[in-house]
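Re: export button greyed out
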Amino acid sequence: MKYRRSGRLVDMTNYFLSHPHQQIPLTHFSEVYNSAKSSISEDLAIIKEVFEDRSVGTIETAAGASGGVTFIPTVDQENTGKLIDKLSERLEDPDRLLPGGYIYMMDVIGDPLLIQDLGRVFASRFRFAGVDAVMTMATKGIPLAYAVAGHLNVPVSIVRHEHRITEGSIVSINYVSGSKKRIQTMSLARRSLKPKSNVLIIDDFMKAGGTIRGMMDLVAEFQSTVAGVGVLTEAVHEEEKLVDKYVSLTKLSQMNEKSRTLKVERGTYFEAENLI
Amino acid sequence: MKYRRSGRLVDMTNYFLSHPHQQIPLTHFSEVYNSAKSSISEDLAIIKEVFEDRSVGTIETAAGASGGVTFIPTVDQENTGKLIDKLSERLEDPDRLLPGGYIYMMDVIGDPLLIQDLGRVFASRFRFAGVDAVMTMATKGIPLAYAVAGHLNVPVSIVRHEHRITEGSIVSINYVSGSKKRIQTMSLARRSLKPKSNVLIIDDFMKAGGTIRGMMDLVAEFQSTVAGVGVLTEAVHEEEKLVDKYVSLTKLSQMNEKSRTLKVERGTYFEAENLI
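Workaround output, generated via the alternate export path:
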Protein backbone atom coordinates (compact mmCIF):
# COMPACT_ATOMS: atom_id res chain seq x y z
CA MET A 1 0.00 0.00 0.00
CA LYS A 2 1.34 3.41 -0.90
CA TYR A 3 -0.34 6.29 0.90
CA ARG A 4 0.73 9.88 0.86
CA ARG A 5 1.10 11.67 4.20
CA SER A 6 -2.57 12.67 4.27
CA GLY A 7 -3.75 9.09 3.86
CA ARG A 8 -1.21 7.79 6.36
CA LEU A 9 -2.36 10.28 9.00
CA VAL A 10 -5.97 9.13 8.72
CA ASP A 11 -5.05 5.45 8.77
CA MET A 12 -2.48 5.74 11.59
CA THR A 13 -4.92 7.75 13.71
CA ASN A 14 -7.51 5.00 13.35
CA TYR A 15 -4.87 2.35 14.06
CA PHE A 16 -3.70 4.01 17.27
CA LEU A 17 -7.24 4.59 18.54
CA SER A 18 -8.06 0.91 18.07
CA HIS A 19 -4.74 -0.33 19.58
CA PRO A 20 -4.26 1.58 22.85
CA HIS A 21 -1.49 0.64 25.29
CA GLN A 22 0.18 -1.52 22.66
CA GLN A 23 3.76 -0.93 21.58
CA ILE A 24 4.02 -0.77 17.79
CA PRO A 25 7.46 -0.94 16.14
CA LEU A 26 8.15 1.89 13.69
CA THR A 27 8.92 -0.78 11.09
CA HIS A 28 5.27 -1.83 11.24
CA PHE A 29 4.20 1.51 9.77
CA SER A 30 7.13 1.86 7.36
CA GLU A 31 6.34 -1.60 5.97
CA VAL A 32 2.57 -1.14 5.76
CA TYR A 33 2.93 2.18 3.93
CA ASN A 34 6.19 1.42 2.14
CA SER A 35 7.57 4.70 3.51
CA ALA A 36 10.86 5.85 5.02
CA LYS A 37 11.10 5.79 8.82
CA SER A 38 11.88 9.50 8.75
CA SER A 39 8.51 10.20 7.09
CA ILE A 40 6.75 7.99 9.64
CA SER A 41 8.47 9.89 12.46
CA GLU A 42 7.14 13.16 11.08
CA ASP A 43 3.63 11.65 10.85
CA LEU A 44 3.89 10.54 14.47
CA ALA A 45 4.92 14.01 15.62
CA ILE A 46 1.82 15.49 13.97
CA ILE A 47 -0.51 12.88 15.53
CA LYS A 48 1.06 13.28 18.97
CA GLU A 49 0.64 17.05 18.85
CA VAL A 50 -3.03 16.92 17.88
CA PHE A 51 -3.82 14.12 20.36
CA GLU A 52 -2.26 16.11 23.20
CA ASP A 53 -3.82 19.39 22.11
CA ARG A 54 -7.28 17.81 21.92
CA SER A 55 -7.03 15.71 25.12
CA VAL A 56 -7.23 12.40 23.27
CA GLY A 57 -4.01 10.94 24.63
CA THR A 58 -0.33 10.86 23.96
CA ILE A 59 2.12 8.85 21.86
CA GLU A 60 5.08 7.52 23.83
CA THR A 61 8.28 6.55 22.08
CA ALA A 62 10.64 3.85 23.33
CA ALA A 63 14.06 3.88 21.64
CA GLY A 64 16.27 0.93 20.74
CA ALA A 65 15.90 -2.40 18.95
CA SER A 66 12.81 -3.41 20.92
CA GLY A 67 11.45 0.13 20.74
CA GLY A 68 8.34 1.50 19.19
CA VAL A 69 5.45 3.84 19.78
CA THR A 70 2.51 3.41 22.15
CA PHE A 71 -0.77 5.31 22.21
CA ILE A 72 -1.86 6.09 25.78
CA PRO A 73 -5.44 7.42 26.07
CA THR A 74 -5.65 10.37 28.46
CA VAL A 75 -8.19 12.99 29.42
CA ASP A 76 -6.92 16.23 30.95
CA GLN A 77 -8.41 17.65 34.16
CA GLU A 78 -10.26 20.45 32.39
CA ASN A 79 -12.13 18.06 30.11
CA THR A 80 -12.75 15.60 32.94
CA GLY A 81 -14.18 18.42 35.06
CA LYS A 82 -16.52 19.52 32.27
CA LEU A 83 -17.70 15.96 31.65
CA ILE A 84 -18.33 15.24 35.33
CA ASP A 85 -20.06 18.55 36.06
CA LYS A 86 -22.41 17.96 33.14
CA LEU A 87 -23.09 14.42 34.38
CA SER A 88 -23.66 15.61 37.99
CA GLU A 89 -26.20 18.16 36.82
CA ARG A 90 -28.00 15.45 34.87
CA LEU A 91 -27.99 13.14 37.91
CA GLU A 92 -29.59 15.75 40.18
CA ASP A 93 -33.02 15.22 38.60
CA PRO A 94 -35.26 14.21 41.57
CA ASP A 95 -37.20 11.81 39.29
CA ARG A 96 -34.20 9.52 39.70
CA LEU A 97 -34.94 8.86 43.36
CA LEU A 98 -35.86 5.23 43.98
CA PRO A 99 -36.84 3.52 47.24
CA GLY A 100 -33.97 2.44 49.50
CA GLY A 101 -31.46 5.17 48.76
CA TYR A 102 -30.86 4.19 45.14
CA ILE A 103 -31.11 6.39 42.11
CA TYR A 104 -32.12 5.45 38.59
CA MET A 105 -29.02 5.53 36.41
CA MET A 106 -29.78 3.18 33.52
CA ASP A 107 -30.12 6.10 31.09
CA VAL A 108 -26.54 7.07 31.90
CA ILE A 109 -25.25 3.49 32.01
CA GLY A 110 -27.25 2.72 28.85
CA ASP A 111 -25.50 5.43 26.80
CA PRO A 112 -22.54 3.70 25.12
CA LEU A 113 -20.71 6.84 23.96
CA LEU A 114 -20.99 8.56 27.35
CA ILE A 115 -19.76 5.37 29.03
CA GLN A 116 -16.82 5.30 26.58
CA ASP A 117 -15.87 8.83 27.68
CA LEU A 118 -16.19 7.96 31.38
CA GLY A 119 -14.15 4.81 30.80
CA ARG A 120 -11.42 6.91 29.22
CA VAL A 121 -11.26 9.06 32.37
CA PHE A 122 -10.54 5.96 34.49
CA ALA A 123 -8.13 4.56 31.90
CA SER A 124 -6.30 7.88 32.00
CA ARG A 125 -6.28 8.00 35.82
CA PHE A 126 -4.87 4.44 36.12
CA ARG A 127 -2.58 4.54 33.05
CA PHE A 128 0.59 4.16 35.16
CA ALA A 129 -0.87 1.52 37.51
CA GLY A 130 0.30 -1.51 35.54
CA VAL A 131 -3.24 -2.88 35.20
CA ASP A 132 -3.46 -6.46 33.80
CA ALA A 133 -7.22 -6.95 34.13
CA VAL A 134 -10.40 -5.10 35.04
CA MET A 135 -12.87 -6.73 37.45
CA THR A 136 -16.49 -5.74 37.91
CA MET A 137 -19.75 -6.97 39.39
CA ALA A 138 -22.66 -7.96 37.18
CA THR A 139 -24.82 -6.32 35.96
CA LYS A 140 -24.52 -2.59 35.98
CA GLY A 141 -20.75 -2.34 36.39
CA ILE A 142 -20.15 -4.21 33.13
CA PRO A 143 -20.51 -1.38 30.58
CA LEU A 144 -18.11 0.96 32.40
CA ALA A 145 -15.66 -1.87 33.09
CA TYR A 146 -15.51 -2.70 29.37
CA ALA A 147 -14.98 0.92 28.45
CA VAL A 148 -12.08 1.20 30.91
CA ALA A 149 -10.60 -2.14 29.83
CA GLY A 150 -10.88 -1.26 26.16
CA HIS A 151 -8.87 1.92 26.66
CA LEU A 152 -6.30 0.02 28.75
CA ASN A 153 -6.31 -2.96 26.36
CA VAL A 154 -6.76 -5.57 29.11
CA PRO A 155 -9.37 -8.32 29.65
CA VAL A 156 -12.45 -8.09 31.89
CA SER A 157 -13.47 -10.50 34.67
CA ILE A 158 -17.16 -10.43 35.55
CA VAL A 159 -18.07 -11.37 39.13
CA ARG A 160 -21.62 -12.63 39.76
CA HIS A 161 -23.98 -12.95 42.66
CA GLU A 162 -25.36 -16.21 41.41
CA HIS A 163 -23.57 -19.41 40.47
CA ARG A 164 -23.82 -20.11 36.77
CA ILE A 165 -23.41 -23.49 35.21
CA THR A 166 -22.00 -22.20 31.95
CA GLU A 167 -18.55 -21.20 33.12
CA GLY A 168 -16.96 -24.35 34.51
CA SER A 169 -15.12 -24.32 37.82
CA ILE A 170 -15.77 -21.20 39.91
CA VAL A 171 -14.32 -19.58 43.02
CA SER A 172 -16.90 -18.25 45.48
CA ILE A 173 -16.53 -16.15 48.61
CA ASN A 174 -18.92 -14.83 51.19
CA TYR A 175 -18.99 -11.15 51.96
CA VAL A 176 -21.02 -8.79 54.09
CA SER A 177 -23.03 -6.26 52.17
CA GLY A 178 -22.07 -3.09 54.03
CA SER A 179 -25.35 -1.25 53.83
CA LYS A 180 -27.65 -4.22 54.38
CA LYS A 181 -25.38 -6.11 56.81
CA ARG A 182 -26.31 -9.34 55.09
CA ILE A 183 -24.06 -12.21 54.15
CA GLN A 184 -23.97 -12.73 50.39
CA THR A 185 -21.99 -14.82 47.92
CA MET A 186 -20.01 -13.70 44.91
CA SER A 187 -18.40 -15.97 42.33
CA LEU A 188 -15.86 -15.75 39.53
CA ALA A 189 -15.02 -18.42 36.96
CA ARG A 190 -11.58 -19.81 37.73
CA ARG A 191 -10.52 -19.44 34.11
CA SER A 192 -11.56 -15.83 33.84
CA LEU A 193 -8.66 -14.27 35.80
CA LYS A 194 -5.00 -15.28 35.47
CA PRO A 195 -3.20 -15.75 38.82
CA LYS A 196 -0.77 -12.95 39.72
CA SER A 197 -2.76 -10.30 37.87
CA ASN A 198 -2.82 -6.67 38.92
CA VAL A 199 -6.52 -5.93 38.94
CA LEU A 200 -8.41 -2.65 38.57
CA ILE A 201 -11.84 -2.94 40.23
CA ILE A 202 -14.56 -0.87 38.52
CA ASP A 203 -18.18 -0.55 39.60
CA ASP A 204 -21.10 1.75 38.92
CA PHE A 205 -22.21 2.49 42.48
CA MET A 206 -20.75 2.30 45.99
CA LYS A 207 -22.57 2.77 49.27
CA ALA A 208 -20.68 1.32 52.25
CA GLY A 209 -18.27 -0.48 49.92
CA GLY A 210 -19.11 -4.07 50.91
CA THR A 211 -19.26 -5.31 47.33
CA ILE A 212 -15.94 -3.66 46.45
CA ARG A 213 -14.41 -5.09 49.65
CA GLY A 214 -15.67 -8.53 48.57
CA MET A 215 -14.09 -8.14 45.13
CA MET A 216 -10.80 -7.18 46.79
CA ASP A 217 -10.94 -10.41 48.79
CA LEU A 218 -11.78 -12.34 45.62
CA VAL A 219 -8.73 -10.81 43.89
CA ALA A 220 -6.58 -12.18 46.73
CA GLU A 221 -8.11 -15.66 46.20
CA PHE A 222 -6.60 -15.55 42.70
CA GLN A 223 -3.12 -14.71 44.13
CA SER A 224 -3.53 -11.32 42.54
CA THR A 225 -3.19 -7.70 43.63
CA VAL A 226 -5.50 -4.70 43.48
CA ALA A 227 -4.19 -1.97 41.16
CA GLY A 228 -6.94 0.41 42.17
CA VAL A 229 -10.66 0.93 42.67
CA GLY A 230 -12.85 3.18 40.54
CA VAL A 231 -16.58 3.87 40.90
CA LEU A 232 -18.89 6.03 38.84
CA THR A 233 -20.98 7.23 41.80
CA GLU A 234 -20.61 6.92 45.55
CA ALA A 235 -23.55 7.50 47.86
CA VAL A 236 -23.64 9.33 51.16
CA HIS A 237 -23.33 6.77 53.90
CA GLU A 238 -23.55 7.43 57.62
CA GLU A 239 -20.98 4.82 58.66
CA GLU A 240 -17.33 4.44 57.77
CA LYS A 241 -16.64 3.11 54.27
CA LEU A 242 -15.22 -0.40 54.06
CA VAL A 243 -12.73 0.66 51.37
CA ASP A 244 -9.94 3.14 52.14
CA LYS A 245 -8.68 4.16 48.73
CA TYR A 246 -10.94 4.57 45.76
CA VAL A 247 -11.50 7.00 42.93
CA SER A 248 -15.11 8.13 42.47
CA LEU A 249 -16.22 10.44 39.67
CA THR A 250 -19.38 11.70 41.37
CA LYS A 251 -20.73 11.77 44.90
CA LEU A 252 -24.38 11.75 45.96
CA SER A 253 -23.91 14.13 48.86
CA GLN A 254 -27.58 14.63 49.73
CA MET A 255 -30.48 12.41 49.03
CA ASN A 256 -33.87 12.74 50.65
CA GLU A 257 -36.78 10.65 49.44
CA LYS A 258 -39.34 12.63 51.42
CA SER A 259 -38.41 16.12 50.26
CA ARG A 260 -37.32 14.69 46.91
CA THR A 261 -33.95 16.39 46.88
CA LEU A 262 -30.78 15.06 45.36
CA LYS A 263 -27.40 16.74 45.34
CA VAL A 264 -24.50 15.44 43.27
CA GLU A 265 -20.93 16.69 43.60
CA ARG A 266 -17.53 15.91 42.16
CA GLY A 267 -16.09 12.67 43.55
CA THR A 268 -12.70 11.82 45.05
CA TYR A 269 -11.14 11.85 41.57
CA PHE A 270 -10.80 15.61 42.02
CA GLU A 271 -9.04 15.45 45.39
CA ALA A 272 -5.41 16.50 45.24
CA GLU A 273 -3.90 13.10 46.03
CA ASN A 274 -5.87 11.48 43.23
CA LEU A 275 -4.90 13.87 40.47
CA ILE A 276 -2.01 12.45 38.50
CA MET B 1 -8.00 26.76 16.52
CA LYS B 2 -6.04 26.88 13.31
CA TYR B 3 -4.84 23.51 12.08
CA ARG B 4 -3.19 22.80 8.78
CA ARG B 5 -4.57 19.93 6.70
CA SER B 6 -2.38 17.36 8.45
CA GLY B 7 -3.68 18.34 11.89
CA ARG B 8 -7.26 18.54 10.67
CA LEU B 9 -7.09 15.02 9.22
CA VAL B 10 -5.96 13.56 12.56
CA ASP B 11 -8.56 15.48 14.53
CA MET B 12 -11.43 14.85 12.11
CA THR B 13 -10.62 11.13 11.96
CA ASN B 14 -10.84 10.95 15.74
CA TYR B 15 -14.04 12.99 15.72
CA PHE B 16 -15.76 10.74 13.18
CA LEU B 17 -14.71 7.55 14.96
CA SER B 18 -16.18 8.81 18.23
CA HIS B 19 -19.39 10.15 16.61
CA PRO B 20 -20.71 7.36 14.37
CA HIS B 21 -24.15 7.60 12.73
CA GLN B 22 -24.37 11.29 13.60
CA GLN B 23 -24.89 13.92 10.93
CA ILE B 24 -22.35 16.72 11.27
CA PRO B 25 -22.85 19.97 9.34
CA LEU B 26 -19.84 21.04 7.26
CA THR B 27 -19.99 24.37 9.07
CA HIS B 28 -19.06 22.54 12.30
CA PHE B 29 -15.65 21.69 10.88
CA SER B 30 -15.12 24.98 9.06
CA GLU B 31 -15.84 26.86 12.30
CA VAL B 32 -13.75 24.62 14.58
CA TYR B 33 -10.73 24.86 12.27
CA ASN B 34 -11.42 28.33 10.91
CA SER B 35 -11.05 26.89 7.40
CA ALA B 36 -12.86 27.29 4.09
CA LYS B 37 -15.57 24.76 3.31
CA SER B 38 -13.69 23.82 0.15
CA SER B 39 -10.68 22.77 2.23
CA ILE B 40 -12.92 20.77 4.56
CA SER B 41 -14.48 19.03 1.55
CA GLU B 42 -11.05 18.00 0.35
CA ASP B 43 -10.21 16.68 3.84
CA LEU B 44 -13.44 14.68 3.85
CA ALA B 45 -12.63 13.12 0.48
CA ILE B 46 -9.27 11.91 1.82
CA ILE B 47 -10.82 10.45 4.99
CA LYS B 48 -13.61 8.76 3.05
CA GLU B 49 -11.14 7.15 0.65
CA VAL B 50 -8.93 5.74 3.41
CA PHE B 51 -11.90 4.59 5.53
CA GLU B 52 -13.35 2.69 2.55
CA ASP B 53 -10.00 1.31 1.46
CA ARG B 54 -9.26 0.02 4.97
CA SER B 55 -12.75 -1.31 5.75
CA VAL B 56 -13.35 1.18 8.57
CA GLY B 57 -16.56 2.64 7.21
CA THR B 58 -17.78 5.31 4.88
CA ILE B 59 -18.63 9.00 5.02
CA GLU B 60 -22.06 9.83 3.62
CA THR B 61 -22.87 13.33 2.43
CA ALA B 62 -26.35 14.84 2.52
CA ALA B 63 -26.73 18.02 0.47
CA GLY B 64 -28.83 21.07 1.22
CA ALA B 65 -29.38 23.44 4.15
CA SER B 66 -29.94 20.63 6.63
CA GLY B 67 -27.13 18.61 5.07
CA GLY B 68 -23.88 17.38 6.48
CA VAL B 69 -21.64 14.37 6.68
CA THR B 70 -22.18 11.12 8.58
CA PHE B 71 -19.66 8.43 9.44
CA ILE B 72 -21.14 4.94 9.02
CA PRO B 73 -18.96 2.13 10.45
CA THR B 74 -18.77 -0.83 8.07
CA VAL B 75 -16.75 -4.01 7.75
CA ASP B 76 -16.46 -5.61 4.33
CA GLN B 77 -17.15 -9.31 3.77
CA GLU B 78 -13.50 -10.20 3.33
CA ASN B 79 -12.50 -8.75 6.69
CA THR B 80 -15.58 -10.19 8.38
CA GLY B 81 -14.73 -13.63 6.99
CA LYS B 82 -11.16 -13.43 8.26
CA LEU B 83 -12.29 -12.30 11.71
CA ILE B 84 -14.94 -15.01 12.03
CA ASP B 85 -12.73 -17.83 10.71
CA LYS B 86 -10.04 -16.89 13.23
CA LEU B 87 -12.64 -16.81 16.00
CA SER B 88 -14.15 -20.16 14.93
CA GLU B 89 -10.74 -21.80 15.04
CA ARG B 90 -10.21 -20.42 18.53
CA LEU B 91 -13.62 -21.69 19.65
CA GLU B 92 -12.92 -25.26 18.48
CA ASP B 93 -10.63 -25.92 21.45
CA PRO B 94 -12.24 -28.97 23.21
CA ASP B 95 -11.24 -27.56 26.61
CA ARG B 96 -14.19 -25.21 26.15
CA LEU B 97 -16.74 -28.00 26.49
CA LEU B 98 -18.85 -27.58 29.60
CA PRO B 99 -21.61 -29.85 30.94
CA GLY B 100 -25.06 -29.35 29.40
CA GLY B 101 -24.10 -28.41 25.87
CA TYR B 102 -22.48 -25.10 26.78
CA ILE B 103 -19.04 -23.91 25.87
CA TYR B 104 -16.74 -21.63 27.84
CA MET B 105 -16.59 -18.29 26.04
CA MET B 106 -15.66 -15.77 28.72
CA ASP B 107 -12.16 -15.36 27.28
CA VAL B 108 -13.73 -14.23 24.01
CA ILE B 109 -16.47 -12.17 25.69
CA GLY B 110 -13.89 -10.78 28.14
CA ASP B 111 -11.69 -9.34 25.36
CA PRO B 112 -12.89 -5.74 24.87
CA LEU B 113 -11.07 -5.05 21.59
CA LEU B 114 -12.24 -8.30 19.97
CA ILE B 115 -15.79 -7.55 21.13
CA GLN B 116 -15.48 -4.07 19.60
CA ASP B 117 -14.58 -5.66 16.25
CA LEU B 118 -17.46 -8.14 16.45
CA GLY B 119 -19.81 -5.32 17.42
CA ARG B 120 -18.72 -3.40 14.34
CA VAL B 121 -19.68 -6.39 12.16
CA PHE B 122 -23.25 -6.30 13.51
CA ALA B 123 -23.40 -2.49 13.32
CA SER B 124 -22.34 -2.78 9.69
CA ARG B 125 -24.86 -5.53 8.95
CA PHE B 126 -27.77 -3.56 10.48
CA ARG B 127 -26.66 -0.08 9.38
CA PHE B 128 -29.71 0.42 7.15
CA ALA B 129 -32.20 -1.10 9.62
CA GLY B 130 -33.15 2.18 11.33
CA VAL B 131 -32.14 0.88 14.75
CA ASP B 132 -33.19 3.12 17.70
CA ALA B 133 -32.04 0.88 20.56
CA VAL B 134 -30.15 -2.34 21.24
CA MET B 135 -31.65 -4.88 23.66
CA THR B 136 -29.76 -7.71 25.33
CA MET B 137 -30.04 -10.19 28.18
CA ALA B 138 -27.82 -9.93 31.23
CA THR B 139 -25.09 -10.96 31.75
CA LYS B 140 -23.05 -12.23 28.86
CA GLY B 141 -24.84 -10.43 26.05
CA ILE B 142 -24.00 -7.03 27.55
CA PRO B 143 -20.45 -6.50 26.20
CA LEU B 144 -21.39 -7.31 22.60
CA ALA B 145 -24.61 -5.27 22.84
CA TYR B 146 -22.64 -2.20 23.96
CA ALA B 147 -20.13 -2.63 21.17
CA VAL B 148 -22.92 -2.81 18.58
CA ALA B 149 -24.80 0.12 20.15
CA GLY B 150 -21.67 2.24 20.34
CA HIS B 151 -21.03 1.83 16.60
CA LEU B 152 -24.72 2.57 15.87
CA ASN B 153 -24.85 5.42 18.41
CA VAL B 154 -28.03 4.20 20.11
CA PRO B 155 -28.84 3.35 23.76
CA VAL B 156 -28.85 -0.14 25.30
CA SER B 157 -31.69 -1.80 27.24
CA ILE B 158 -30.61 -4.61 29.55
CA VAL B 159 -33.19 -7.33 30.23
CA ARG B 160 -32.77 -9.38 33.42
CA HIS B 161 -33.88 -12.70 34.76
CA GLU B 162 -34.32 -11.34 38.25
CA HIS B 163 -36.34 -8.37 39.49
CA ARG B 164 -34.11 -5.64 40.81
CA ILE B 165 -35.20 -2.98 43.22
CA THR B 166 -32.88 -0.33 41.86
CA GLU B 167 -34.64 0.46 38.62
CA GLY B 168 -38.13 1.60 39.54
CA SER B 169 -41.17 0.30 37.71
CA ILE B 170 -40.49 -2.76 35.57
CA VAL B 171 -42.29 -4.76 32.89
CA SER B 172 -42.04 -8.54 33.28
CA ILE B 173 -43.10 -11.36 30.99
CA ASN B 174 -43.01 -15.11 31.23
CA TYR B 175 -41.36 -17.11 28.51
CA VAL B 176 -40.52 -20.73 27.84
CA SER B 177 -36.85 -21.52 27.73
CA GLY B 178 -36.69 -23.51 24.49
CA SER B 179 -33.99 -25.98 25.43
CA LYS B 180 -35.07 -26.58 29.02
CA LYS B 181 -38.84 -26.26 28.42
CA ARG B 182 -39.14 -24.34 31.66
CA ILE B 183 -41.19 -21.23 32.32
CA GLN B 184 -39.00 -18.31 33.28
CA THR B 185 -39.43 -14.58 33.85
CA MET B 186 -37.59 -11.70 32.23
CA SER B 187 -37.90 -8.03 33.20
CA LEU B 188 -37.00 -4.64 31.80
CA ALA B 189 -37.20 -1.29 33.56
CA ARG B 190 -40.07 0.70 32.10
CA ARG B 191 -37.86 3.76 31.73
CA SER B 192 -35.11 1.96 29.89
CA LEU B 193 -36.81 1.66 26.48
CA LYS B 194 -38.80 4.42 24.77
CA PRO B 195 -42.14 3.26 23.31
CA LYS B 196 -42.21 2.96 19.49
CA SER B 197 -38.53 2.10 19.28
CA ASN B 198 -37.08 -0.08 16.55
CA VAL B 199 -35.01 -2.55 18.53
CA LEU B 200 -32.01 -4.64 17.53
CA ILE B 201 -31.77 -7.73 19.78
CA ILE B 202 -28.20 -8.88 20.44
CA ASP B 203 -27.12 -11.90 22.49
CA ASP B 204 -24.02 -14.01 22.93
CA PHE B 205 -25.52 -17.49 22.57
CA MET B 206 -28.65 -19.06 21.11
CA LYS B 207 -29.79 -22.65 21.44
CA ALA B 208 -33.50 -23.10 20.68
CA GLY B 209 -34.04 -19.33 20.74
CA GLY B 210 -36.44 -19.16 23.71
CA THR B 211 -34.67 -16.22 25.30
CA ILE B 212 -34.59 -14.29 22.03
CA ARG B 213 -38.28 -15.13 21.48
CA GLY B 214 -38.99 -13.76 24.97
CA MET B 215 -37.14 -10.53 24.20
CA MET B 216 -39.16 -10.17 21.00
CA ASP B 217 -42.35 -10.45 23.07
CA LEU B 218 -40.96 -7.91 25.54
CA VAL B 219 -40.25 -5.50 22.68
CA ALA B 220 -43.93 -5.75 21.73
CA GLU B 221 -44.92 -4.91 25.34
CA PHE B 222 -43.15 -1.57 24.81
CA GLN B 223 -45.19 -0.89 21.61
CA SER B 224 -41.94 -1.30 19.75
CA THR B 225 -40.71 -3.26 16.73
CA VAL B 226 -37.84 -5.67 16.19
CA ALA B 227 -35.25 -4.29 13.74
CA GLY B 228 -33.30 -7.54 13.75
CA VAL B 229 -31.69 -10.26 15.80
CA GLY B 230 -27.95 -10.90 16.05
CA VAL B 231 -26.14 -13.60 18.02
CA LEU B 232 -22.45 -14.31 18.39
CA THR B 233 -22.84 -18.10 18.45
CA GLU B 234 -25.72 -20.44 17.77
CA ALA B 235 -25.65 -24.03 18.95
CA VAL B 236 -26.78 -27.15 17.14
CA HIS B 237 -30.26 -27.95 18.27
CA GLU B 238 -32.31 -30.98 17.31
CA GLU B 239 -35.69 -29.21 17.29
CA GLU B 240 -36.91 -26.29 15.23
CA LYS B 241 -35.62 -22.87 16.31
CA LEU B 242 -38.17 -20.55 17.90
CA VAL B 243 -36.85 -17.59 15.91
CA ASP B 244 -37.15 -17.45 12.12
CA LYS B 245 -34.81 -14.68 11.11
CA TYR B 246 -31.54 -14.04 12.87
CA VAL B 247 -27.94 -13.28 12.00
CA SER B 248 -25.37 -15.49 13.71
CA LEU B 249 -21.63 -15.04 13.29
CA THR B 250 -20.64 -18.59 14.24
CA LYS B 251 -22.40 -21.92 14.50
CA LEU B 252 -21.50 -24.80 16.81
CA SER B 253 -22.28 -27.51 14.31
CA GLN B 254 -20.96 -30.46 16.28
CA MET B 255 -20.49 -30.81 19.97
CA ASN B 256 -19.87 -34.09 21.73
CA GLU B 257 -18.98 -34.12 25.42
CA LYS B 258 -18.02 -37.78 25.40
CA SER B 259 -15.63 -37.76 22.46
CA ARG B 260 -14.66 -34.17 23.33
CA THR B 261 -15.14 -32.83 19.84
CA LEU B 262 -16.31 -29.38 18.89
CA LYS B 263 -16.82 -28.05 15.41
CA VAL B 264 -17.45 -24.38 14.72
CA GLU B 265 -18.55 -23.01 11.35
CA ARG B 266 -19.52 -19.69 9.85
CA GLY B 267 -23.00 -18.59 10.94
CA THR B 268 -26.03 -17.35 9.00
CA TYR B 269 -24.34 -13.96 8.52
CA PHE B 270 -22.61 -15.53 5.52
CA GLU B 271 -25.78 -16.85 3.87
CA ALA B 272 -26.68 -15.04 0.68
CA GLU B 273 -29.88 -13.41 1.95
CA ASN B 274 -28.04 -11.94 4.93
CA LEU B 275 -25.19 -10.32 3.02
CA ILE B 276 -25.98 -6.68 2.41
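The CA atoms of residues 12 and 172 of chain B lie 44 Å apart. The button fix ships in the next patch.
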